[in-house]
Design brief:
Blueprint (H helix, E strand, L loop, with lengths): L1 E7 L8 E7 L2 E7 L12 H4 L1 H5 L9 E4 L2 E4 L2 H19 L4 E5 L7 H5 L1 H8 L4 E3 L6 H11 L7 E2 L6 E5 L3 H4 L9 H10 L3 E5 L5 H4 L3 E3 L6 H14 L12 E2 L1 H8 L4 H8 L3 H13 L4 E4 L1 H4 L4 H14 L9 E2 L42 H6 L10 E5 L3 H4 L3 H9 L3 E5 L12 E3 L20 E4 L15 H12 L8 H15 L12 H6 L6 H12 L15 H5 L5 E5 L15 E2 L3 H13 L8 E3 L26 E3 L1 H7 L6 E6 L2 E9 L7 E3 L14 H5 L14 E2 L4 E2 L4 E2 L1 E4 L7
Parallel strand pairs: 6-7, 6-15, 9-10, 9-13, 10-11, 12-20, 15-16, 16-17, 21-25, 22-24
Antiparallel strand pairs: 1-2, 2-3, 4-5, 4-17, 8-14, 18-19, 21-28, 22-25, 23-24, 23-29, 26-27
Helix pairs in contact: 3-19, 5-19, 6-15, 10-12, 10-13, 10-15, 12-13, 20-22
The chain binds ligand MGD (2 copies), iron/sulfur cluster and molybdenum atom.
Length: 748
């Protein structure tokens, strides 16, 4: 007997609703849920492989604890006792910053990752926090923090309504979109063109997305900030700025104009290797379009001027009057957002409240650069103790961060490491305790993060599609118990962690004049929460206090968990709407167009006008059937074009004397790798490309299929020194490399 169950896909930011076919407790199929209010049936090959992912025989089934140097199966009690015994003495002996936390990408895709890491960091009281954000989108957080006063206020292009999209350093036809949650991004781009809109793509590679565009500009890697500055200067010079209603909400316009005045199209053209006339055309088109949006992602963030590029994107959206207007770029409003406070000045955003120990790199948003993790472990300084213990949740920095070989050795030297991970992989193999979460079908799903970045306001929640197998522990409970173990109370009731958060949240809410529960009794409110467990009660609390919530009775038609559960395909909350000035939290209460840290970084951009790469540079790429470092273990998704090959232009191949498929040695500051050439004219001459997340040939892992075609780790080319200084984000694109023809093995 088979049945179906609904489950939001956790595998990328598109958050598609899936209909799973289930036999007994086994997922035997997955298709798009046509009634999903947001994704309307869209699915990609990764979502379709949900059943295979769920049933992967290499998933760990029980906790592992290291005994005499060897990881052995253990009970949950033994595992959490070992965590408490491993973490507490390190914090007591060396101080709390000697215990670090590393949070990886899947935390933004799990309920547990949305609810507990901040509680864990609070319990450990550590400043040694590292996440995937600093190999990804930290520049965008910093630019939003500086412009709008809130690092999480990220404007999203109104894909469904815009007349003109300038898409930079993103390839949504493979990635399905990022910092722009849009199921069927490809369909939305096609619809844009079908309704007469224009699409321009800026990317050194002629990607599948570029092939869909009206125009593709193969920019020189790392120069988008210059290009965008030239567009802004053109708008100013040609009198094309038109802020419309935004004028009342901005400050610093004349200062901005003066600061950018020497970045003319003619001045940047040689560095970007794009015609000055074409740059002027782009600016004029942006100004002339009834509505337009600029959207930029990985290729614009993971570069030396990532924060400036991210800042300029929203500066241009503002100068053309497109920020916060339908068809432009708007601030979504998610159902679990905090109760909106009245508009007015806020506390602003501050960078560098503390620094890393070794290189003294500034924190951003409470995080230190992931590029500094290895040195913070392996280097002693007078500034304090190195990291001696790590809690690693859903992260594989040995492959995803610079210089995995150094990090490998550093992790091996730790006094203690615990990993929450379903696999024994390149990173978790170093752990003393591994706590495996259950397969996704046994987990609930809600997109705390991605609903704040979605092109349409909506809310959806999936309960686990199948019950927990015997011996399994929900990931929410694993996280709650980790918090308790960090506090030295591994045997306490995990529900007490949720109860504590509920109590603290309500105690604050009843004191806020703008809260619907102002002045009420927190205990009485807590008693009214519904849900089967602590995490569900916390979701209920967030929904009820949120912008669409029932406010515990203040709006009887408002959202509650019960109401959400009654709508298994989700609840549509309407298109994105203008929200300014409410989201602004700057000290001035306005959009601060030229923040001081940005102004101070402009001389570095001015220098870049004269810089040209001396030799080849390397950029990354993503493949639709892959996902960072952890989906290479599924036979259903590997093979075909999803391979770790070096893309290079025919001219470069000829110069090197390599033929298609022959090995090429790539050398960077951090090391060298050898990968087979894949010759393609879809890449700029002088630019080569390797995907990331490969290199599954290290011993001690248990991902048998991934190990068959391991690929190479592109991040070994990096030594961790190249950063965007404002955000601490790693430079992963446009990195200088040397290429040589590797010896071709003699045919046998
Ligand atoms: N050169 C280069 N490097 C890059 C990038 C690039 O473009 N180029 N991209 C960067 C980006 S954008 C990112 S986000 C990072 C990603 O880098 P990481 O944050 O390290 O993420 P992954 O490599 O996806 O590893 C995720 C880990 O989570 C585990 N996992 C999967 N599902 C779950 C779950 O439900 N619960 C738990 N607890 N664990 C789970 C997996 O087994 C895996 O170990 O890589 C970055 N690295
Ligand atoms: N299938 C799949 N989907 C994914 C992921 C995955 O690994 N696989 N990862 C997920 C994650 S964690 C993220 S953050 C998102 C990322 O989503 P996207 O930002 O769409 O990521 P990419 O597909 O890597 O596209 C980045 C593009 O930038 C280009 N580029 C490189 N350097 C430059 C430059 O200097 N300037 C410009 N203009 N372009 C440049 C590259 O050629 C590439 O085509 O994808 C998510 N979705
Ligand atoms: S596009 Fe993303 S969310 Fe949708 S099915 Fe594919 S992997 Fe899942
Ligand atoms: Mo990412």
């Amino acid at each position: 007997m088979s049945r179906t169950a609904l489950r939001i896909c956790p595998l990328c930011e598109a958050t598609c609703g899936l209909t799973l076919t289930i036999e007994g407790t086994r997922v035997t199929g997955a298709r798009g849920d046509r009634e999903d209010v947001f994704s309307k049936g869209f699915i990609c090959p990764k979502g379709a492989a949900f059943g295979a992912l769920d049933a992967d025989p290499d998933r760990l089934r029980t906790p592992l604890v290291r005994v005499d140097g060897e990881l052995r199966e253990a009970t949950w009690e033994e595992a959490f006792a070992a965590v408490a015994a491993g973490l507490r003495p390190v914090a007591e002996r060396y101080g709390r910053d000697a215990v670090g936390v590393v949070l990886g990408n899947p935390n933004v895709h799990t309920v547990a990752g949305g609810l507990y890491p901040s509680v864990l960091i609070g319990a450990l009281r550590t400043r040694s926090v590292f996440t995937a954000s600093t190999v990804d989108q930290m520049p965008k957080h910093v630019s939003s923090g500086l412009l709008f006063g809130d690092p999480n206020a990220i404007p999203v292009p109104d894909l469904d309504h815009t007349d003109h999209l300038l898409l930079i350093g993103a390839n949504p036809l493979e990635s399905n979109g990022s910092l722009c949650t849009a199921p069927d991004f490809p369909g939305k781009l096609k619809a844009l063109r079908a309704r007469g809109g224009r699409l321009t793509v800026i990317d050194p590679r002629r990607t599948r997305t570029a092939r869909l565009a009206d125009r593709h500009i193969a920019v020189r890697p790392g120069t988008d900030a210059l290009l965008l500055a030239a567009l802004a200067t053109t708008l100013f010079e040609e009198g094309l700025t038109d802020l419309g209603d935004l004028a009342a909400h901005v400050e610093g316009l004349p200062e901005l104009r003066a600061a950018l005045s020497d970045f003319t199209p003619e001045a940047v053209a040689p560095a970007c290797d794009v015609d000055a006339a074409l740059l002027r055309t782009l600016a004029r088109e942006l100004a002339a379009a009834p509505t337009a949006a600029i959207y930029a992602r990985i290729g614009s963030c993971t570069v030396p001027h990532g924060t400036l590029a991210s800042w300029l994107v929203d500066v241009l959206n503002t100068l053309t009057g497109n920020l916060d207007r339908p068809g432009g770029a708007l601030f979504p409003q998610a159902a679990t957002d905090r109760t909106p406070r009245p508009a007015g000045p806020g506390r602003g955003f501050i960078l560098g409240r503390w620094h890393s120990r070794v290189r003294e790199l500034p924190e951003a948003k409470g995080e230190l650069p992931l590029s500094a993790l290895a040195e913070e472990i392996d280097t002693a300084t007078e500034q304090g103790e190195p990291l001696r213990a790590l809690v690693v949740i859903a992260a594989n920095p040995v492959l995803s961060a610079p210089d995995g070989d150094r990090l490998d050795k550093a992790l091996e030297s730790l006094d203690f490491m615990v990993a929450v991970d379903p696999y024994l992989n390149e990173t978790s193999r170093h752990a003393d305790v591994v706590l495996p979460p259950p397969p996704p079908a046994q987990s609930p799903h809600h997109d705390f993060a991605f609903n704040t970045l979605a092109v349409r306001n909506q809310v959806r929640y999936s309960r686990p599609a199948v019950p927990l197998e015997p011996g399994r522990m929900a990931e929410t409970e694993i996280h709650a118990r980790l918090v308790l173990a960090a506090m030295g109370m591994p045997e306490a009731d995990p529900g007490s962690v949720d109860a504590m958060v509920v109590e603290q949240t309500l105690a604050k809410a009843v004191k806020e004049p703008h809260s619907p529960v102002h002045g009420q009794d927190p205990q009485d409110l807590a008693a009214r929460l519904t849900g089967d467990d602590g995490p569900e009660r916390r979701l209920d609390l967030m929904l009820r206090l949120g912008p669409y919530g029932d406010g515990f009775g203040a709006d009887p038609d408002g959202l509650t968990l019960d109401r959400l559960l009654a709508h298994p395909h989700g609840i549509d909350l309407g298109p994105l709407r203008s929200r300014l000035p409410q989201p602004l939290k700057t000290v001035s209460g306005r959009i601060e167009l030229l923040p001081a840290p940005v102004a101070a970084d402009l001389p570095r951009l001015r220098q870049a006008l004269r810089e040209r790469p001396a030799g080849p540079v390397l950029v990354g790429r993503r493949h639709l059937r892959s996902n960072n470092s952890w989906l290479h273990n599924l036979p259903a998704l590997t093979g075909g074009t999803n391979r770790c090959t070096l893309h290079l232009h025919p001219e470069d191949a000829a110069r090197l004397g390599v033929r298609d498929g022959e090995p090429v040695r790539v050398k960077g500051a951090g090391g060298e790798v050898t990968a087979p050439a894949e010759i393609t004219d879809g890449i700029r001459p002088g630019v080569v490309s390797l995907p990331h997340g490969w290199g599954h040939d290290r011993p001690g892992t248990r991902q048998s299929h991934a190990a068959v075609q391991p690929g190479v780790n592109v991040n070994q080319l990096l030594d961790g020194t190249l950063l965007d200084p404002l955000s601490g984000n790693a430079v992963l694109n446009g990195i200088p490399v040397e290429l040589t023809r590797a010896r071709v093995p003699e045919p046998r």
